[in-house]
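Milestone 3.1: sequence recovery, worked example.
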């Protein structure tokens, strides 16, 4: 039976990222019968494996049984697999192409009150903020009315849209020429943004952020955590990538004991150190399929039911 590694790649309501250079900001099928775990490829074994693809991420989720997170399929905050973003953005314009009339920019906004970014619209350019510059969002954090330049969006704000950082949108080639960061696509394709890589075992992100699986599952990027007091702990339910405390990921429900939600928080673990941080019945399974881990991530594992 095919499962997926993570429960979702959607960004939660208060997510944001730092876009400064050097700062934290960020299916393929596999029929092998190995006992490793890969987060981005689907397998039909009882192991968990996670190979990666790039591009359309977000919004979705991933699952694992050989735990894998398929790239190119989609999902929402309720489960399922992440989707490949549609060409031309989601809605009025395309943030990759920045195809709005002169004096406007294409950005991401909430489709309705109480939801995260989910559609793209043209708004007036109201500032010239570049990568890493401070910014604010007028009339609420999801309106898109910020003082960042064309090609940038203000993220990492407080709930009122204040005190954020300008983050680069990926360009039409899915690259990040201003920051040199990784292009990751979230929230049903509406949020193609440039995020810095991080180490899930050391959690080397800025204060208030956690190191979570990147869209596609091929690496890890820093997001602002979206958890309340006493929430997002081991075994707690989650609907978004960053609704778990730093050091945990939103895993598919079949990987976490007694998980009755669309996803539940489970610890990252060092494969070389065994199952010590895992819940009873879980094992520390390699996040990447054997031989497919990017340099430096060979020892990254996730606690999961085998």
């Amino acid at each position: 039976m095919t499962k997926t590694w993570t429960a979702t790649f959607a960004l939660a309501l208060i997510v944001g990222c730092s876009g400064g250079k050097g700062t934290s900001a960020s299916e393929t099928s596999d029929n092998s019968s190995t006992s490793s775990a890969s987060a981005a490829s689907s397998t039909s074994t009882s192991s968990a494996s996670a190979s990666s693809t790039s591009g359309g991420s977000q919004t979705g989720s991933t699952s694992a049984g050989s735990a894998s997170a398929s790239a190119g399929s989609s999902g929402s905050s309720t489960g399922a697999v992440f989707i490949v973003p549609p060409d031309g953005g989601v809605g009025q314009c395309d943030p990759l192409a920045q195809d709005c009339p002169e004096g406007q920019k294409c950005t991401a906004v909430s489709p309705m009150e109480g939801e995260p970014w989910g559609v793209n619209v043209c708004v007036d350019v109201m500032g010239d903020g570049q990568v890493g510059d401070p910014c604010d969002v007028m009339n609420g954090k999801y309106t898109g009315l910020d003082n960042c330049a064309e090609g940038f969006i203000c993220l990492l704000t407080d709930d009122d849209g204040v005190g954020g950082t300008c983050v680069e949108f990926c360009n039409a080639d899915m690259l990040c020429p201003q920051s040199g960061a990784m292009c990751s696509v979230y929230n049903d394709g509406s949020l193609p943004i440039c995020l810095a890589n991080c180490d899930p075992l050391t959690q080397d992100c800025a204060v208030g952020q956690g190191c979570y699986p990147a869209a596609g599952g091929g690496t890890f990027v820093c997001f602002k955590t979206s958890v309340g007091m006493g929430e997002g702990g081991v075994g707690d339910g989650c609907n978004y990538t960053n609704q778990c405390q730093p050091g945990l990921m939103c895993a598919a429900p079949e990987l976490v004991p007694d998980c009755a939600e669309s996803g539940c928080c489970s610890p990252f673990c060092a494969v070389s150190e065994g199952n010590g941080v895992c819940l009873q019945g879980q094992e520390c399974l390699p996040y990447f399929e054997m031989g497919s881990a990017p340099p430096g991530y060979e020892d990254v594992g996730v606690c999961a039911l085998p």
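Residues 23 and 171 are 20 Å apart (CA to CA). Residues 104-192 form one domain.
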